C-alpha cells in the first residue's frame, strides 16, 4: 500500500504533490551544492597548481639564463684581459708606423699579438678562433686561424660592431662562421679596440665560439617532458632551439623581456622568459599547457566521480524522504475523502513525534470534535423546532403593538409640524430685527469714525495754533531787537555826521594853508617855484576832499532818513503783533475747548457702539434659539414620522417573523433529516 502511495506521489505533477516538491528541492539542492563545491575546489586546485608550476618554470629559466650569462661573461673577460695587457697595447701603438717599420720587426710584432690570442683561446677548447682586424693601420688581419685571414670590411657584422662604440656586440649563429671557413656552426661577439679604450688606432676583434656551447647549456633545461627551450636574439628572432630548425621556424617572441623572468600563456602553450643583461638575448621555455595541467585532470576526474556518487545518494535520500512524507499524507487524503462522504469514524494511525505525527494527532482530535459537534447539533435542532413555535406567538403580539404605536406617532408628528411653522415665522421677524440692528451698527461705526476724525483734526489744529503762537512771540521779539538795532544805526549815523563836520573843517583849513603857502612861494620867486607847485596840489586835494565830504553828508542824511522811517514803521507794527498774539491765544483756547468736547463725544459714541453690539449679540442669540426651536420641531416631526415608519416596518417585521418561525420549523425538520446521514 505504501509503495502504491509513493508511486502515485511521483506520478503526480509537482504542483499537486508536496512529496514530489520536497524530493525535487532536496535533490536539486544537494546536486547543485556538491557540483558547485566540486567545481570550485577543482578550479582552486588547478589555479594553485598552475601558479606553482609557472613559478617553478620561471625559476628554472632564470637559473639557466644566469648560468648561460656566466659562461658568456667568461668569454667577454678574455678580451678584457687582452686590452689590459701592456705588450698588446704597445704593439697596437707601434702598428701605427707599420708602413715605415722594417718588415722583420713588423712580423715579430704580429707574431707576438698572435701568441697572446693563442694563449687566450686555450682557456676554452670550444673557442673557434680570435681575429684582430685593423681599420686604419697597414697591418694584415691577425688570427689564431692561419688558414684564411681574408675579410670584408663592409660586412653587416662589421658595421654592427662599429656602431657599438667599444661595447661587445653578440652575433647570432652562422653555419660557416663569420670568416666563412668554419666546419661547424658558430656564434661570435665583436668589439672595437682603439681610441675609446686603449688610445691606439681602431681595430675590430672577432671571437668565434662553437654553437655547441649554447646547445649544451639550453639542452638540459626542461620545464616539462616535451617542453622546448629556445634562445632569441635582441631583435626577437630565434637563434637556437632544443627542437632544432623545425622548432625555430614556429617560434617568435617579442624582444626586451625582463631579466628577472616573466611568464605568460599563449593559445595552448605556456612561455617562460628571461632576458640576459650580458648579451641582450632572451632565453625562453615553451611547454604545452596540457602537460602542466596533467595533475589537475586527475583531480577533475575525481571531482566528477564524487559528484556522481553524491547525486546517487541524494536520489536514494530523496526517495526515502518522499516515502516518509508521502505515505502519511496519502492516508490522510483517503480518510478526508471518507469524512467528506459522511463517515467520521476514520482515524490516522501514525505514532511519530515529528510534524507528520503531530498532524495525525491533530486530525484525530478534529474528527472527535466534529463528531461531538454533530451530536450537539442534533440536540440543538430539536431545541430550535420548539423555539420556533414560541417565536411565532411573540411575532403576532409584536405586530399588534406596532399598529398602536404607529397611530400615536402620526398625532405627535402633526403637532410638531405646527410648532415648526410658528418657530419659522418668529425666526423671520428676529432676522428682520437683526438687519435693522446691523444698519444701526453701520451708521454708528460711521459716526464714531467721523468723531475720531474730528478729534484728530482738533488735535492737529491745536498743535498748529500753538506753533503759530510760538512763532508770533518769536517774531515780536525779533522785531523789538531789529528796532533796537535801527536806533543804534541812527546813533551811528549821527556820529558819522559829526565826524564829517570835523573833516570839513580840516579841509577848509588845508585850503587856507595851501593859499598861504602859494603866497609865500610867490614872494620867494624862483627859489619857491617847487614849493608853489606842491601848495597847488595840496589845494586841489583839499577841494576834492570837500567835494567827497559833501557827497558823504548827502548819503548819511539819506540813511538817517530811511532809518527814522524804519524805526517809525517798527513802532507802528509792534501793537499789531501784540493784537495778533492775543488773537492766536484766543483761537488756541477755542481749539482746546472743542477738543475736550470731541473727546467726550467720542466716549459717548463708543458707549453707544458697545450697547448696539450687545443688542446685536442678544438678537443673534435669540435668532439661534428660534432656529434651534425650529430645528427641534422639524426633528421631532421627522422623528415622529420615522417612528411611524418604523412602526410600519415593525408590523411588517412581526409578520415576517411569523413567516420565519414557520420556515424555521421546516428547516429544523430538514436539518434533523440531514444529521441522520452522519455516522459517528
TrEMBL record:
<protein>
    <submittedName>
        <fullName>HAMP domain-containing protein</fullName>
    </submittedName>
</protein>
<keyword id="KW-0472">Membrane</keyword>
<keyword id="KW-0812">Transmembrane</keyword>
<feature type="domain" description="HAMP">
    <location>
        <begin position="323"/>
        <end position="375"/>
    </location>
</feature>
<dbReference type="InterPro" id="IPR004089">
    <property type="entry name" value="MCPsignal_dom"/>
</dbReference>
<dbReference type="InterPro" id="IPR003660">
    <property type="entry name" value="HAMP_dom"/>
</dbReference>
<dbReference type="GO" id="GO:0007165">
    <property type="term" value="P:signal transduction"/>
</dbReference>
<keyword id="KW-0807">Transducer</keyword>
<comment type="similarity">
    <text>Belongs to the methyl-accepting chemotaxis (MCP) protein family.</text>
</comment>
<dbReference type="Pfam" id="PF00672">
    <property type="entry name" value="HAMP"/>
</dbReference>
<keyword id="KW-1003">Cell membrane</keyword>
<dbReference type="GO" id="GO:0005886">
    <property type="term" value="C:plasma membrane"/>
</dbReference>
<feature type="transmembrane region" description="Helical">
    <location>
        <begin position="304"/>
        <end position="326"/>
    </location>
</feature>
<keyword id="KW-1133">Transmembrane helix</keyword>
<dbReference type="Pfam" id="PF00015">
    <property type="entry name" value="MCPsignal"/>
</dbReference>
<feature type="domain" description="Methyl-accepting transducer">
    <location>
        <begin position="394"/>
        <end position="644"/>
    </location>
</feature>
Amino acid at each position: 500500500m505504501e509503495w502504491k502511495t509513493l508511486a502515485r506521489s511521483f506520478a503526480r505533477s509537482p504542483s499537486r504533490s508536496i512529496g514530489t516538491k520536497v524530493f525535487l528541492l532536496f535533490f536539486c539542492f544537494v546536486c547543485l551544492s556538491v557540483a558547485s563545491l566540486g567545481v570550485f575546489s577543482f578550479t582552486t586546485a588547478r589555479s594553485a597548481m598552475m601558479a606553482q608550476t609557472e613559478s617553478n618554470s620561471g625559476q628554472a629559466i632564470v637559473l639557466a639564463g644566469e648560468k648561460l650569462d656566466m659562461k658568456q661573461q667568461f668569454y667577454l673577460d678574455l678580451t678584457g684581459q687582452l686590452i689590459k695587457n701592456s705588450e698588446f697595447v704597445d704593439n697596437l701603438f707601434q702598428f701605427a708606423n707599420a708602413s715605415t717599420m722594417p718588415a722583420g720587426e713588423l712580423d715579430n710584432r704580429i707574431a707576438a699579438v698572435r701568441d697572446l690570442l693563442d694563449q687566450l683561446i686555450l682557456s676554452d677548447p670550444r673557442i673557434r678562433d680570435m681575429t684582430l682586424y685593423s681599420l686604419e693601420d697597414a697591418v694584415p688581419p691577425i688570427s689564431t686561424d692561419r688558414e684564411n685571414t681574408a675579410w670584408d670590411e663592409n660586412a653587416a657584422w662589421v658595421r654592427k660592431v662599429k656602431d657599438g662604440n667599444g661595447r661587445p656586440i653578440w652575433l647570432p649563429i652562422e653555419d660557416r662562421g663569420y670568416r666563412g671557413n668554419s666546419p661547424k656552426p658558430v656564434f661570435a661577439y665583436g668589439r672595437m679596440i682603439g681610441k675609446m679604450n686603449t688610445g691606439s688606432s681602431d681595430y675590430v676583434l672577432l671571437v668565434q665560439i662553437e654553437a655547441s656551447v649554447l646547445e649544451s647549456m639550453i639542452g638540459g633545461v626542461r620545464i616539462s617532458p616535451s617542453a622546448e627551450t629556445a634562445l632569441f636574439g635582441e631583435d626577437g628572432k630565434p637563434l637556437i632551439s632544443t627542437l632544432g630548425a623545425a622548432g625555430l621556424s614556429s617560434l617568435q617572441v617579442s624582444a626586451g623581456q625582463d631579466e628577472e623572468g616573466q611568464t605568460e600563456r599563449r593559445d595552448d602553450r605556456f612561455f617562460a622568459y628571461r632576458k640576459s643583461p650580458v648579451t641582450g638575448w632572451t632565453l625562453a621555455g615553451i611547454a604545452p599547457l596540457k602537460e602542466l595541467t596533467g595533475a589537475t585532470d586527475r583531480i577533475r576526474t575525481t571531482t566528477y566521480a564524487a559528484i556522481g556518487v553524491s547525486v546517487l545518494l541524494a536520489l536514494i535520500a530523496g526517495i526515502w524522504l518522499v516515502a516518509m512524507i508521502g505515505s502519511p499524507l496519502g492516508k490522510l487524503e483517503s480518510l478526508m475523502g471518507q469524512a467528506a462522504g459522511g463517515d467520521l469514524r476514520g482515524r490516522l494511525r501514525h505514532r511519530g513525534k515529528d510534524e507528520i505525527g503531530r498532524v495525525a494527532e491533530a486530525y484525530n482530535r478534529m474528527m472527535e470534535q466534529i463528531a461531538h459537534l454533530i451530536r450537539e447539533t442534533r440536540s440543538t435542532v430539536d431545541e430550535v423546532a420548539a423555539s420556533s413555535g414560541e417565536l411565532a406567538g411573540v411575532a403576532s403580539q409584536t405586530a399588534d403593538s406596532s399598529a398602536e404605536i404607529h397611530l400615536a406617532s402620526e398625532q405627535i408628528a402633526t403637532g410638531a409640524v405646527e410648532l415648526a411653522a410658528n418657530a419659522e415665522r418668529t425666526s423671520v421677524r428676529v432676522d428682520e430685527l437683526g438687519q435693522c440692528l446691523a444698519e444701526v451698527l453701520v451708521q454708528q461705526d460711521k459716526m464714531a469714525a467721523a468723531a475720531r476724525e474730528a478729534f484728530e483734526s482738533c488735535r492737529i489744529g491745536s498743535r498748529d495754533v500753538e506753533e503759530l503762537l510760538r512763532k508770533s512771540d518769536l517774531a515780536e521779539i525779533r522785531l523789538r531787537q531789529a528796532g533796537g538795532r535801527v536806533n543804534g544805526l541812527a546813533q551811528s549815523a549821527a556820529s558819522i555826521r559829526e565826524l564829517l563836520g570835523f573833516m570839513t573843517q580840516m579841509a577848509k583849513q588845508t585850503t587856507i594853508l595851501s593859499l598861504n603857502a602859494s603866497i609865500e612861494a610867490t614872494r620867494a620867486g624862483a627859489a619857491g617855484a617847487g614849493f608853489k607847485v606842491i601848495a597847488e596840489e595840496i589845494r586841489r586835494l583839499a577841494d576834492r576832499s570837500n567835494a567827497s565830504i559833501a557827497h558823504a553828508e548827502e548819503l548819511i542824511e539819506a540813511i538817517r532818513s530811511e532809518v527814522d522811517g524804519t524805526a517809525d514803521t517798527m513802532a507802528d507794527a509792534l501793537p499789531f503783533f501784540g493784537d495778533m498774539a492775543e488773537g492766536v491765544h484766543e483761537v488756541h483756547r477755542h481749539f482746546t475747548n472743542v477738543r475736550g468736547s470731541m473727546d467726550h463725544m467720542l466716549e459717548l459714541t463708543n458707549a453707544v457702539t458697545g450697547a448696539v453690539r450687545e443688542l446685536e449679540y442678544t438678537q443673534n442669540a435669540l435668532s439661534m434659539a428660534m432656529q434651534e426651536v425650529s430645528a427641534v420641531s422639524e426633528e421631532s416631526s421627522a422623528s415622529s414620522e420615522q417612528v411611524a415608519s418604523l412602526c410600519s416596518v415593525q408590523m411588517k417585521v412581526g409578520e415576517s417573523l411569523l413567516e420565519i418561525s414557520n420556515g424555521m420549523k421546516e428547516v429544523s425538520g430538514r436539518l434533523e433529516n440531514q444529521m441522520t446521514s452522519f455516522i459517528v
